[in-house]
Amino acid sequence: LGVPMYNVLDDALENNYAVPQFNMNGWIWLEAILKTAEACRAPVIVGTTDKIVDQIGGFRLLSESFSIMKEEIGLTVPAVLHLDHGQTVERCMAAVDAGYDSVMYDGSKFSIEENIENTRKVVAYAHKHGVTVEAEVGSVGGTEDGIYSNLLYADLNECRTLIKETGVDSLAPALGSVHGKYKGEPNLGFKEMAALRESTPVPFVLHGASGISNEDLSRAISYGHAKINYNTELNIAWSQATRRILEGNADLYAPMEILKPGKEALKETVATVLRRTGAYHQV
Ligand code: 13P
Ligand code: ZN
Ligand code: NA
């Protein structure tokens, strides 16, 4: 089931729901995400950051394991393997070479000119191999995998220019969302979302979704956010469950017993999010 990303995002855009991207931080995540998506009859995107790719054994191991796990589970819902916040053109190309379905090129640290130039290179290579590309304009705030960015609202004209000049399949316009926990209330740029939606048919991606209320989320979806990225919410659920079993059982050392509640917590969180974004029962 090598499902190109644009298929899942186009269907979501048409039917006013969003496909969640869940970041994996270990093999337990992958199994929990895919099994829950299947049980919930929902399309799903598995995200891997550059750092987790290196930590877990590389692009090929991830890509092959993703395929094998889909087979073993007998997955019938669309599942996409995606490189999240690819830091260089070369990393994106390596993901394509390994068989990823989709890549994000994160040029948020560069000038818009350099961002466009690099995104264009990634698009040329990825599209030749049937792989979709996500770009970022402005800068999502907060910290992910130790990489910190100041929140910088996207300039709407820069968004339009990048879309036109690169041919990207989806765009993450930084409009107030933040990686990790929010300090205070999230302040999303709905006016900007609405204006941008008027000028392009490209699906939008909402980063930093952990901590955003259901109301704000629905509004963002109605303005064309067809992909919603979750990492922190899963990690909080996993760590709370894991901490609970360790603290409650001082003599426990059997890894399978220790890891079980964390996996269950991940499954529950994935199911909750699939309902929240409307992806539940779309397949
Ligand atoms: P959160 O960690 O805030 O959920 O953000 C996830 C994300 O944007 C991954 O790219
Ligand atoms: Zn992100
Ligand atoms: Na967040």
Spatial ordering of strands, largest sheet: 8-5-4-3-2-1-11-10
In CATH's first tier, which class applies?
A: Alpha Beta
Structural class comes to alpha/beta
Number of domains: 1
Spatial extent as radius of gyration: 18 Å
Arithmetic mean pLDDT = 96
Bound molecules: 1,3-dihydroxyacetonephosphate, zinc ion, sodium ion
Number of strands: 11
Tell me about the largest β-sheet.
8 strands, parallel
Distance between the termini: 13 Å
- Given as residue ranges, the uncertain stretches (5+ residues, pLDDT < 50) are none
Organism: Halobacillus kuroshimensis
Pfam families: F_bP_aldolase (PF01116)
InterPro entries: Aldolase_TIM (IPR013785), Class_II_FBP_aldolase (IPR050246), FBA_II (IPR000771)
Cofactor: Zn(2+)
Q: Would you give an account of this structure?
A:
This protein has about 280 residues and is an alpha/beta fold. The chain has helices at about 5-15, 25-40, 50-55, 60-75, 90-100, 110-130, 155-165, 190-200, 215-220, 230-250, 255-275; strands at about 20-25, 45-50, 80-85, 100-105, 130-135, 140-145, 145-150, 170-175, 180, 205, 225-230. α9 (about 215-220) links the parallel β10 and β11 (about 225-230). α5 packs parallel to α6. The site of sodium ion has 7 residues, from β9.
